[in-house]
Amino acid sequence: MTDTVAQAVADAKAAPDTMAWDSGLRRLMMIYLPLGCFVLILLFPFYWMAITSFKPNAELMNYKEHNPFWITSPTLAHIKHLLFDTAYPRWLWTTMLVAIGSTTLSLIASTLAAYAIERLRFRGSPYVGLGIYMAYLVPPSILFIPLATVVVQFGLFDSPLALILVYPTFLVPFCTWLLIGYFKSIPYELEECALVDGATRLQILRRITLPLAVPGLISAGIFSFTLSWNEFIYALAFIQSGANKTVPVAILTELVTGDVYQWGALMAGSLLGSLPVAIFYSLFVDYYVSSLTGAVKE
Amino acid sequence: MSVTTLSSPVPVHRQQSWLVRLFDYKPFLVVMCLAPAIGLLGVFLTYPLGLGIWLAFTDTTIGRKGVFVGLENFQYLLTDSLWWNAVFYSVVYTGIATFGKFALGFWLALLLNNHFPFKSLLRAIILLPWIVPTVLSALAFWWIYDPQFSIISYLLVDVLHWRTSNVDFLGTPWPARFSLIAANIWRGIPFVAISLLAGLQTISPSLYEAAMLDGASAWQRFRYITFPMMMPILAIVMTFSIIFTFTDFQLVYAITRGGPGNSTHLLATLAFQRGIAGGELGEGAAIAVSMIPFLVFATLFSYFGLARRKWQQGESND
Question: What is the DSSP letter of A252?
Answer without folding.
Answer: I
